[in-house]
Predict the structure.
Amino acid sequence: MTVVATSVVRLTVTFTTKPETEETFMRFFQRVRPAGSGWTRIAAQAGGTGSEDLRSMNRAVRPAIAAAIALAVFAPHPVAADMDKQLTSLKGSVTYERGTTAPRPLAATTSIVLADADIASTGADSQGRITLPDSSRVTMASQTRIQLAFFNQTDIANAKFIVYEGKTRFIVEHPQGAKANYVFQTPSTNIAVRGTEGDIGIDGDNLTLNVYKLGDANLPVQVTYTKGDKAGQSVFVKAGQQLVLRLIDGIIKAETSKLTQAAIDQFNELGVPTNMAELQQTVLNKIPVPTLPSIPKLPF
């Protein structure tokens, strides 16, 4: 930021002001008396000549330079740096695909920069994680295939993932009060997420969705059907609920129900949700049993 700011000032002054005279250079030399053999009258004259040559540049290019400077300083810049989109191999076989290239393996515990449209896959007994610039992350269980369609961020982080198969856990963050709009496209639905934690399981056209917690706005997850007799219709899934969808002969059969321990265990490969203690008390109705003190033995 310092380099950009000083460069803008320097270039603006260079192209909008007149060159200094030789007398000005000499007065500066006589007052400051800088050390070094380079500071001679000849050097001062050369500096003046060089500055004059610089300012005599073709005036036709100056408006373009000024426009470029203004664009660099004042135009909004989406935060979409590829350097901030990372795929990390947590264990086992993790690969990525870019364009038409063959899948490339990723060494264990290492990371690679992801570009938009890259595809990440995991093998048997494997796990990978995609981390986004807004600190959101998508963890992939075994035998999972996901494409990062795009990520961009101005005031709101927008991202789209295409989940082809397998199991994933998404944690969409709201860093520093910012908003996030994420979409997970599955073979039969579009899942809109805003600051949420949950799991997605894909088996063909069938979907299992667990929602563990919502963001600050407390907005439910919106699931829009893209296939079958209910294409275009939407349902909403709140925190502590599970949606199970089956597509049979073009007919959507979907049911939303309260989360159970069995529903959470379907994704146990991804670990426990970050708010598991809250889920146990408010959803699973598991109240911790206090440990009673042991009774001391009597001496007889």
Observations:
- The domain at 82-282 is CATH 2.60.120.1440 (Jelly Rolls).
- Residues 96 and 271 are 23 Å apart (CA to CA).
- The chain has six helices and 17 strands.
- The radius of gyration is 30 Å.
